[in-house]
## 1
Amino acid sequence: MRKTTLQKPHEIDEAINIIKSKPDFTVSSLYKIWGLLLRKKRIALNLTQTDVAKMTFVTFQQIQKFENGKNKISFDKVIMFCQQTGTGYDYFLSTLNGRTLITNIGG
């Protein structure tokens, strides 16, 4: 059975808030949030995963994995996406908002 994906901005925001509310803010947490932010912006701009894949030189399957938190989206892909869509870098970087990342082994 297929997993339900978050499609509405408020659903994505809720998922982000759950991650942010955890006491330890890990590198893995950061990448999961970036994937969710990518999905939120992609939907807001009415782009398909294939559109974003072409912008960032990866496959649409890779975009799926970024958005679902299975794979970490690299910073260069974030930059490419921002440049191609006119999105300010702060859209992603504000995730840190003064928080200290805790290194998590293996994840």
## 2
Amino acid sequence: MTDMKKQAVLFTKLDLPLAQAADRIIEVALPTYDSQVSDGLNIGGGTYTRFANGETEIILVCNDEMHPDVFLPSHKEFPYYCYVYRGSPAVLDAMRSCFITRGIQCEFGERP
């Protein structure tokens, strides 16, 4: 039996459309990152936002039934989550601290 490594994700409650949620994340937690909206055919379908800074890339996806390849129903009350596509997952800890400081509800979880 193979042990599948799970990936840490940071769920967030932002009651905003994707582009505005991405802008809010940059403002609050990732001010030195560039962002780009992309089509997610290569990472699960739907539109997503990619944040990049040097060797680190973070992906913001919609967590809903309209995006079944990335939907995590165990946290369906969170409309978005971020995960590290490239780089150290420690950036999620820093993001969480920034979110909490600004009153944005968030929590850690995992995805396969």
